[in-house]
Automatic annotation (TrEMBL):
<dbReference type="InterPro" id="IPR003439">
    <property type="entry name" value="ABC_transporter-like_ATP-bd"/>
</dbReference>
<dbReference type="InterPro" id="IPR050093">
    <property type="entry name" value="ABC_SmlMolc_Importer"/>
</dbReference>
<dbReference type="GO" id="GO:0005524">
    <property type="term" value="F:ATP binding"/>
</dbReference>
<keyword id="KW-0067">ATP-binding</keyword>
<keyword id="KW-0547">Nucleotide-binding</keyword>
<dbReference type="InterPro" id="IPR017871">
    <property type="entry name" value="ABC_transporter-like_CS"/>
</dbReference>
<keyword id="KW-0813">Transport</keyword>
<protein>
    <submittedName>
        <fullName>Tungstate transport system ATP-binding protein</fullName>
    </submittedName>
</protein>
<dbReference type="GO" id="GO:0016887">
    <property type="term" value="F:ATP hydrolysis activity"/>
</dbReference>
<dbReference type="Pfam" id="PF00005">
    <property type="entry name" value="ABC_tran"/>
</dbReference>
<feature type="domain" description="ABC transporter">
    <location>
        <begin position="3"/>
        <end position="228"/>
    </location>
</feature>
<dbReference type="InterPro" id="IPR003593">
    <property type="entry name" value="AAA+_ATPase"/>
</dbReference>
<dbReference type="InterPro" id="IPR027417">
    <property type="entry name" value="P-loop_NTPase"/>
</dbReference>
Amino acid sequence: MHVKVENAVKDYGSSRVLDIESIEFKKGIYVILGSNGSGKSTLISCIAGLNELNSGNIFYDGKKMDFAIRNSICIQVQKPYLFNKSSYENIVSGLKFRKSSREEIETRYNKYKDYFEIEELLSKKSWWLSGGERAKIALLRTAVLETEMTLLDEPTAAMDIESSMRAENLIKDMAKDNRTVILVTHDVYQAKRIANHVIFMDKGRIIEMGSMEHVLNNPTNKLVKQILNI
Ligand SMILES: Nc1ncnc2c1ncn2[C@@H]1O[C@H](COP(=O)(O)OP(=O)(O)OP(=O)(O)O)[C@@H](O)[C@H]1O
């Protein structure tokens, strides 16, 4: 899906939290980095249609948001809510909500369940899971939907190193077949490992963007240079 954000402004009271002239997302993994409060979550929640811009436009393959587009986008928010059901029920809950057939649910579940070692978690009610365990179940619930565009807000923040690596493999697979992933993270190393494109934000604005390779080799912004340790 080709998403174009134009002249996007979002204000909360008198404070402007998003002020973006233009940005486009096509296929691959786009990683958004930036300090706390720089507008990363606001941007992706506006793209997902969870939040409204005060002014500006977002076009999806040249069109405005509608029901079909909404169904081809999935956002995993920073603190995903899990139902107080088994981990299995949580993983397939989005598919059930979208009225997938029983066969489809089983096929998708089996396709994704081994990205993490979740055997022990399956019988547990989600409310008893640790933070990292919940993060794995949430990411699987997002992955099984196989949406054309997936927006992820710090999905690995609570995971241990090995689990983060597994999650990164899953995220790479979410961007296969010309699909798009937009990942918000504070982990520059993670960005270096998996990003095709990188966007740096500061105070609601984009201060640097481009292919990962280009930005790594030719950062122009002083803050970006510092973050990348260049
Ligand atoms: N509903 C709201 N009402 C008022 N201010 C808000 C609201 N939601 C977000 N903000 C403010 O908007 C700014 C941008 O927030 P946002 O969550 O997009 O930042 P972020 O870059 O994702 O930060 P972090 O890295 O800490 O997750 C922050 O200053 C935040 O306090």
